[in-house]
Amino acid sequence: MTDSFDTSHTHPAADAKPQRGIQSLDSTGELLAALVAAARPLNLRDLAAAAGMPPAKAFPHLVSLLKIGLLNRDASGCFEAGPLALELGLIGLQRLSPTREAEPEVVELAASTGMSVAMAVLGPLGPTVVRLEESARPLHVSLRVGTVMSLANTAIGRVFAAYVADDVRAGLLVQDHLRLAGADAAEVFAGKPVPAGKGKAAGGTDTASALPPLTQAYAQRLAQIRADGIDTALSRPVPGIDTLAAPVLDHTGSICLVLALMGPSGSFDSELAGGPAQTLRAATSRLSRRFGWMA
């Protein structure tokens, strides 16, 4: 007798049919989804309302979720994530690979915008392009997988510079002249940096922490990037090529990668409020949320 759960010889059409679940658990899921969307503890009345059900219907589901540890109640009686939910979340985050998870977004961005899309991570040498999806009309630029971008003169690099820790940024800027379109120290530092190779400055502090402050213009640009959640580079560093770049953040708010749209100047709306910028921000927001970032 064939096992009733053996699906190896099931017709493909049967696989497409929606599987039958437990209807009561669908309601339970709606309560969990409502709590996630709220991003804060909710009392019974508010949580039930957010899930679109009466409190009397919601309460038994919430009791069961409390018993198994998916939910907890704080001192004021509001419902919040429980220990089991936290453990499941941590397991999920540990298994996520930012570059792997971003791959479908890169392909979709290129297809929906008709533009080239680059993905960069912060490597040992600085912001490094690790994926390049060319548009139907490839750009003739010196950007390839493995290219290390300037933190001062490229949109991709500035986005990283806006979100990394101060000491990390300072250490990278000292060697920015070695990168694509790199800047000299005088362009980003309001003073003379400690000479390379000194190791430690007076008083035993690290060289990075002994570096002078950033120039006002550069510091303001980074602050604006953090406020907008996106940066643009118009015909720089490559004349005739415009770039939009936005960060993907993890559950701690740390930057894990940058996605960028690139196209010929004048061929697309490069304004931060334009369609391509909104599409890019929507993609990076989806990824950030997947990695646990709650804006």
Automatic annotation (TrEMBL):
Molecular function GO labels: DNA binding; DNA-binding transcription factor activity
InterPro entries the UniProt entry points to: GAF-like_dom_sf, HTH_MetabolicPath_Reg, Tscrpt_reg_IclR_C, Tscrpt_reg_IclR_N, WH-like_DNA-bd_sf, WH_DNA-bd_sf
Residues covered by the IclR-ED domain: 84-293
PROSITE patterns (UniProt xref): ICLR_ED
Annotated stretches, region: Disordered: 1-21
Pfam families, A to Z: HTH_IclR
UniProt entry tagged with the keyword Transcription regulation: yes
Keywords for the protein's UniProt record, in alphabetical order: DNA-binding, Transcription, Transcription regulation
Residues annotated as transmembrane: none
Record field: compositional bias (Basic and acidic residues): 1-18
GO biological process per UniProt: negative regulation of DNA-templated transcription
Protein name: Transcriptional regulator, IclR family
